[in-house]
């Protein structure tokens, strides 16, 4: 038997924060790829600590539904799930390349395949592009469009920006959009000045967040000038400084993220058969 544990942040303040986690878990359950699928959270119930101790399967794949490597993936999750002999150095990562480490939980006889976060997987590049397609309604969007990949950013943690920059570079290498920029809320270059970084009339703005909440539905729309009051909503596209801004909302709500979770598990050795290919359909992973 094999089980999947999806570890997410959750929120005491935003009741919708866990919605993408449950939606992706349900989609994966429907595939029948795993004997058991569990959602666990840091700020909600069920808690991280309960993640693997209620499972019957002896092999467990733990996939963090986080954007970047850092405090939660390297310290909180391993500590709360009581991984034996865990050390972040085992990932041998440069900040965006964490893959899989095989571990044992100290109080249960289970083999744990601890995966890197969903947000740094190469397949997330394609999810960002898919988000631009679905928001504009154009499967060929790119010509005449700029693309901004937006992250939180923080000067206190360098790895916070690395996932944003990584995917922006990969998309830029496709030569599909007129320009691609990585922008941030709390560090330069800031999303407030989004129109300063593009000459194209149309700009798609994709926030690389797992769930819609305070930042994606309040801060960013107001900071970009889409609306003076987030409670009044905004147009898509919205006219700002002579540009049309196509704001997509959190990338983590895109259905294709379920496939990225499966990709992480497959990379760790999960036996998924043709489930990923069947779910992905005509959407290739960039670089395949």
Describe this structure in words.
There is one protein chain. The protein is of the alpha/beta class. The protein has 2 domains: 146 residues, Rossmann fold (3-Layer(aba) Sandwich); 131 residues, Rossmann fold, CATH 3.40.50. It contains 7 helices and 11 strands. The strands form 2 sheets. A 6-stranded mixed β-sheet has the order 2-1-3-6-5-4. A 5-stranded mixed β-sheet has the order 8-7-9-11-10, sandwiched between helices. A hairpin with a 5-residue loop joins β5 and β6. α3 crosses α4. It is elongated and about 60 Å long. The relative contact order is 0.16.
Sum this structure up briefly.
This protein is α/β, with parallel strands linked by helices and 288 residues long. The protein is 27% helix and 20% strand.
The residue-averaged pLDDT reads: 91
Helical run tally: 7
- Overall helicity: 25-40%
Give the topology string: H per helix, E per strand: EHEEHEEEHEHEEHEEHH
What's the overall geometry?
A: elongated
Low-confidence stretches: 280-288
Question: What is the strand content?
Answer: 15-25%
**Class from helix and strand fractions:** alpha/beta
CATH topology of the largest domain: Rossmann fold
Distance between the termini: 30 Å
Largest sheet data: 6 strands, mixed
CATH class of the largest domain: Alpha Beta
